[in-house]
Every structure is written in C-alpha cells, then in structure tokens.
Design brief:
By secondary structure, this protein is an alpha/beta fold. 31% of the residues lie in helices and 29% in strands. The protein has helices spanning 16-28, 57-62, 101-117, 135-142; strands at residues 13-14, 33-39, 44-51, 70-79, 85-94, 123-127. It has a 6-stranded mixed sheet. One of its GO terms (cellular component) is actin cytoskeleton. Pfam families: Cofilin_ADF. Belongs to the actin-binding proteins ADF family.
C-alpha cells in the first residue's frame, strides 16, 4: 500500500519513507525530530535528517538551514503542573526571511497537503526566525 499522493496545486508528492519515518517517531519514539525537505527534482517531500531520542532541542534547531525552508516535526516532552509526563508532536513550517522567494512559495503551497499525511500532529508553528519556535514557545503552546 502506498501513501504517495500529490497536491494538485503544487504537484508535490510525499515519499512513503517520509510517512513511515513520522510513524516511527509517533509510535515507537525512535526519533526526537525529523527535518523534511522538498526534493524539487523528484517533486516530493523527503526526509533530510532525523535526530535520536537523546538529542536536544538545540540539536534540532541547529539542523534547520539559515537560508532555506524546511518542514520539521519535533516530539516535545514536558511535565504538567499535576506532575504528569506528557508529549506533544509539533509540526514546524520553517521559512526564514533569507530564503529564496521561490522556496517560500513552494513550501507554502505544499504545506497543507504534506501536513495532512502526518496523522497525529498536535500543534503547528510557522516560524520565520528561531525566536518564533524556541523552547519557550513550544512550552507555552503545549498546554
């Protein structure tokens, strides 16, 4: 069975590997984060990098390019006021101001279609610079 599908407006597909890698993060917790990029030649969203469960938020943030767009998923662990261990999966649309206009357009038009393939996302963040997605932002949004 293939999850591969494309978005009529952008023509962008989603690689099966991207969906399976997300499911590994969601179900098995083998990844702390996944960074996805659009492969313009293949016209699909592919996995660029994964981070192991022991990697930090700083490791994740530093894996995003300063001058190009990416999609990312981050598994955020936190403790509630009731002292319960919880986890929220964040989808982050990274579109820095230094990115090319064409890249921003491509990522913007493909985002909703790609996001729909990732069943189990709890929160979504649009970020144009690192301060819009720092750990405090995630913490505030998680509750």
């Amino acid at each position: 069975m293939s999850f591969r599908s494309s978005n009529a407006s952008s023509g962008m597909g989603v690689a099966d590997h991207s969906v399976h890698t997300f499911l590994d993060l969601k179900r098995k917790r083998v990844h702390r984060y996944i960074v996805f990029k659009i492969d313009e030649k293949k016209k699909e969203v592919v996995v660029e990098k994964t981070g192991g469960p022991a990697e930090s938020y700083d490791d994740f943030a530093s894996s995003l390019p300063e001058n190009d767009c990416r999609y990312a998923v981050y598994d955020f662990d936190f403790v509630t006021e009731e002292n319960c261990q919880k986890s929220k999966i964040f989808f982050i649309a990274w579109s820095p101001s230094a990115a090319r206009i064409r890249a921003k357009m491509l990522y913007a038009t493909s985002k909703d279609r790609f996001r729909q393939e990732l069943d189990g996302i709890h929160k979504e963040i649009q970020a144009t610079d690192p301060t819009e997605m720092d750990l405090d932002v995630l913490r505030d949004r998680a509750y």
